[in-house]
Amino acid sequence: MNALGWLAFWSVAFAATHLAMSHPLRTPMVRMLGEKGFSAVYSIVSLVTLVMAARSYGPAQIDAAWLWGVSVPMWGVGSLLMWIGSIAFVGSLVKNPALPHPDADAYAARPATGVFATTRHPMMWGFALWGVTHILVNPTWPSIVLSLAIIVTALGGAWGQDIKKRRLMGESWSEWEANTSYFPFARGFHAPGMFALIGGTILFFVATYAHGWLGRAPVGLWTWF
Fold first, then answer.
1. For residues 144-168, average pLDDT
2. Under a CB-based contact definition with an 8 Å cutoff, are residues 7 and 53 in contact?
């Protein structure tokens, strides 16, 4: 199998095992291994498949041809999507009922504000937007394969999370779903909140600067500096 084939194999393995263990296989695996055993297996499998996909990316990317030209406006759109994704991710870290937390029911009972007024899955949509950005500005088959795996894992995971949370949280999650939407901006535009905006902007600048610092091509606003 060539380098792109191995990248596709490990990317699909990451997405498939992550989604399967997070949702349909979670209950039987917990029953068989216990919570700690399941968490250990889940972490190991996720880490191994993700690391192997990342290691496969470099060889596959060597001499990979761009499928379309990347213009300055496309860089601008990509940077905007990356920034929005960063804001969504940072905002998702505070009082998110989708995350395992003893106060999840209380969080779900609050009015949806900030990034949660935009979508009830800001973390997952943040990952998806990062994936879309990489496809847009690095249009090679290796980039598309790895990015699609991340997008499918994020959005498929968000869909499965709704199903799981309805079962675990019952009425609380149903009320939260009624206050928010799966798709971003389906209920209009909402300000993300200062914490998400400032934290997401810092994350955006740090992540895009680190891209060039690690020897990759400059990205984001650093492209013009």
1. 93
2. yes
